[in-house]
Amino acid sequence: MSPACLPLVFLLLLERTSRAHFPEESGPISIALDDYVKQYAVFVGNGLGRFAGQDGGAERLHIQRMLTINRTLFIGERDNLYRISLESATAGEMRYHRKMTWRSNKHDINICHMKGKHEAECRNFIKVLLLRNDNVLFVCGTNAFNPVCSDYSMDYLEPMGDNISGMARCPYDPKHANVGLFTGGMLFTATVTDFLAIDAVIYRSLGDSPTLRTVKHDSKWFKEPYFVHTVEWKNHVYFFFREIAMEFNYLEKMVVSRVARVCKNDMGGSQRVLEKQWTSFLKARLNCSVPGDSHFYFNVIQSVTDILEIEGRPMVLAVFSTPTNSIPGSAVCAYDMAQIASVFEGRFREQKSPESIWTPVPEELVPKPRPGCCAAPGMQHNSSSLFPDEILNFVKTHPLMDESVPSLGNAPWIIRSVARYQLRKIVVDNAAGPGRNYTVVFLGSDSGTVLKFLIRANLSASSSPARASSHSLLLEEFETYPSDKCGKDATGERKLLSMELDKATGSLLLAFPPCVVRAPVARCHQHSTCMKNCLASNDPYCGWTPEGSCIFVERNTRLAFEQDIGGIKTSYLGDCEVQFLEI
Ligand SMILES: *[C@@H]1O[C@H](CO)[C@@H](O)[C@H](O)[C@H]1NC(C)=O
Ligand SMILES: *[C@@H]1O[C@H](CO)[C@@H](O)[C@H](O)[C@H]1NC(C)=O
Ligand SMILES: *[C@@H]1O[C@H](CO)[C@@H](O)[C@H](O)[C@H]1NC(C)=O
Ligand SMILES: *[C@@H]1O[C@H](CO)[C@@H](O)[C@H](O)[C@H]1NC(C)=O
Ligand SMILES: *[C@@H]1O[C@H](CO)[C@@H](O)[C@H](O)[C@H]1NC(C)=O
Ligand SMILES: *[C@@H]1O[C@H](CO)[C@@H](O)[C@H](O)[C@H]1NC(C)=O
């Protein structure tokens, strides 16, 4: 975008704002002082006990993945895997208990070079880190563009069993996205399966069922997808991703967000149709838009939470942005799992000829049993491989649902159109505060700035999601990237890779390429000089004590404290003098 066209863009934005009912965006109630970031515990590659100082932070880390299981943190890095206990009190630094080094062998590295890849790329980047069962981790690395996977014991990180191919389980190139989960002993993954990253798949392997994949090189199934998350719900595994929308092929390369699903018990098609491929793969668009006369869409999904319950409803929350060449903006939309599922029971969409536009398939033209359904005992066709060819052919050619999934309340729960924040990651505490009765959403920007929102969902008012509503209050903004420990902001180093909530300690874990940071969910102490500020912070994690300080209130605490979430009491209190606060 040239600077000359900026004013026009803003005029357009203003016009949209007035017509599309953008809610007003207020600033945060509090902004954390810069000094706080220096106090956060950081992992930069150092070990504990006999490992202490071994590496001495000599080499910068290249972190790829982070996984927390109960009170243990696993970090997948370039050529290394670390295990860190979150129990041990750590002031200033988190140190590993175990480190396992898994380098590519000379042969793989040589072939990688011969294929024209750079020295720095021909390493083993750990891209898959999954809990396989109670004491086994499933780990895959890019292995110099020849991905490989293996099981590791959770306690000592010792390899268990043989290496298996990482193809369709792990990308070749560390820059590519991948997601995965285990359920019922089966591994569900979504990634690109080849060196050139052209063949995208949703893949099932391991376990007792046959290996299945999506149809190869069929743009109806996928068009340059980028996978962001996967969850299981009831009989299905769901995948969240963005891709180029074939149904808008008249618009050049329009990206939309999707949710796709497959049946866990899919056995693949017959020998004639969809053999060794999904018979249950269906996908639908996710609608995250601002209502009004002219709709404004947030089309680019960035990340999704696991399924969580808010007001008794199972849902996921997702962060979306606008495309990079558009007006910068981010939004959070919520989706009810039952509603996602119901869209897959709705109409299919098709394109009758390569030139025609996409239209819904009339109900009478949909064969029975319903294409995409899960086979079940007692059904006439009790395995997907027994479905008639007519059904299988229909599924193969009609993976797209006609309707898009509406967001809860038909509007984003949070919108930020301030260019400074490119919001990328989301974490939700649906049991925040001492009474565990508040919902707090943390949004992480590309560079590790966190925005913390209090969400008030009004879902119980009506069973109709269209009537559900929500409003959000921006409580706090804080930085999390400690340049002094993790390094100055050289290119890419400050990029937030992932964010997780450690409920037990009331902290967020944030992974950047050179370090993992543990930042508390609240900085109550900064309001300690003033009762009014403490209460007015509206922060469910903070409380004012009778002794006169603002503290982080533990769950189920027996201490007396006062809060004012909703803000009625503070108006009676006098303002405080501005005071210098030492933290
Ligand atoms: C995590 O903790 C829960 C509850 O203590 C336990 O049931 C579960 O087995 C633990 N998970 C793992 C992988 O250790
Ligand atoms: C697995 O692969 C790694 C890296 O290529 C190699 O060092 C290791 O010996 C292999 N393990 C087995 C059991 O083959
Ligand atoms: C499917 O049905 C056949 C008989 O129609 C039965 O023999 C078979 O056990 C059934 N399989 C399952 C998985 O229910
Ligand atoms: C998205 O949701 C809005 C609000 O309900 C609706 O008006 C619009 O038609 C939907 N868009 C799509 C593509 O379904
Ligand atoms: C949350 O619980 C506390 C008591 O633990 C109560 O005072 C407060 O009103 C509750 N808030 C909401 C929104 O239910
Ligand atoms: C919740 O929604 C209902 C109906 O939509 C409305 O009557 C009620 O006032 C709302 N409650 C709150 C607390 O906003």
TrEMBL record:
Gene3D superfamilies for the chain: ligand-binding face of the semaphorins, domain 2, YVTN repeat-like/Quinoprotein amine dehydrogenase
Domain of life: Eukaryota
Coiled coil: none
Domain Sema: 28-521
Keywords (A to Z) from UniProt: Disulfide bond, Glycoprotein, Membrane, Signal
Signal peptide: 1-20
Compartments (UniProt record): Membrane
PANTHER family given in the database record: SEMAPHORIN (PTHR11036), SEMAPHORIN-6B (PTHR11036:SF10)
UniProt name for this protein: Semaphorin-6B isoform X2
